[in-house]
Write a structure and sequence with these properties.
By secondary structure, the protein is α/β, with parallel strands linked by helices. It is built from 23 helices and 18 strands.
Amino acid sequence: MTTTNIYIASPEGANGRNVVAYGVLKALTTKFKTAVFRPAVSNHDHFTPILLNASNAGLGVALSTGLDIHQVRKDKEGSRGDIVAAFNDAMNVSRADAALIVGTDKSHVNDPTAYEFNANIAADLQAGVFLAVCTIDRWPDELKDTVRLSIEGMEAAGNKVLGIFVTGCEPRHSVSVKDTLADFGLPVWTIPQIPFTEASQADAALAAFQANVPTEEVLRAINVEIDFPITSYAFQYSLLGRAKANKKTIVLPEGEEDRIIKAADYLLEREIANLIIVGDKGAILARGAELGLTHLGKARFQAMDDENILKPMVAKLCELRAKKGMTEEQARKQLTDASYFGTMLVVLGYADGLVSGAVNSTANTVRPALQVIKTKPGQRLVSGAFLMCFKDHVTVFSDCAINLNPDAEQLAEIALQSAVTAKAFGIEPKVGMLSYSTLGSGKGPDVDIVEEATRIVKEKAPDLPVVGSIQFDAAWSPDVAATKAKGNDVAGHVNVFVFPDLCSGNIGYKAVQRSSGALAIGPVLQGLNKPVNDLSRGATVQDIINTIALTAIETQ
């Protein structure tokens, strides 16, 4: 079922905005089960209950509101994730097929970034936008400039404006206002000034709206195809939704680390994945209680000295490492390492995948997987990709974690693995084989390797869009590509960036992450028979949540 999300945004947050929101809600409920959501409101908000009385989704105020506006003002960027989570909870509970999202209200606090915040939230919630702009005390050119700047602000965040409501407009000026705004190529409706701050004024407000805005025109305006931006917050919560839709079991070997159990508690509360936490159950639950965690009891706990598990695990490890002459004594010693123990839980089928690395190094996480899980049939190597979440889209960077100096065959395999990863997360891959040369502009042995790798990729996957060798700017920017790679359909549109070696890949993703503010999720370990993913030792709780979710999706 497709959800139709509509955001009501206003540069004023008042002066007729309420009339527009109420009228659009009534129009939506003629066709859809429509929820109401307010991303940020004050504790003196009286308008949300009025909207909820007109909604047909059955939600109360608590589920229909995100955060207190005072909390948002302190940390707008940090609030976005919580607002997206609250919205998803509301939609999951209501099972609505449409949502009316009403932006921030007028306030005595003059916040110059409030409109930008509303634009970002509209993008996070993947909502089409209706603007409500007041014409009172504005000359026609001032109204036009206000609308233009409002549209530009929305489009800068990746949003699509679906229509313009001009409030406070005297009926005799309606035609001239519509003519003034005709150049924007959007539906324009005018609504006279009418007070609407109390429930007793709702009927009059609705009558004024419906007298000037036909319901069928509102529904026609929202019936358009929109290429929604994929913000980092939208992407993170799409991971959670996809993981929850087909729950898998993930083992967490580092069960006594605070960040791990906080992430586990979050996922267990929302029933996003089944979790096996390695460690002493009593000690972990006691620590969870100290941290205020209340859902850890839903996990399965696995002690490392449990002979019921350890005995078959030792036998299997000896079988898998027989060529290396592994004895039972050696196997038992090896299994005192939590990473090995967790990996063997995957091998024995108790878990579908593993996430580790908050305490252990990448080598300690990857080595057991390479030794006992091994690579997929036909794969010669394991590589590490990062999902890079930018303001309005997601890309793949690889290899940024494993292979030092891949040859042409290995580089081609990394590219093909990365294309598969992109597809797994809803990205239609367009691969760029990076170099200091664009399509022959530079020469040298390093360029030769990249161009040979590109040839191999085209041979093995003739339908995969790929360009190489190509410089990063020509891969990223259509404007640069028009000069450096004229006529190439992939250049300028690359979303899978394959770096020529580990040095450039690791530097590249970290430089982009830190300088642009992009969210880096990963590394996703590519090429293994079963999903095993590594965490940075500096991983935040949200990083761990994301990695567990993407591991669950990989197992699907």
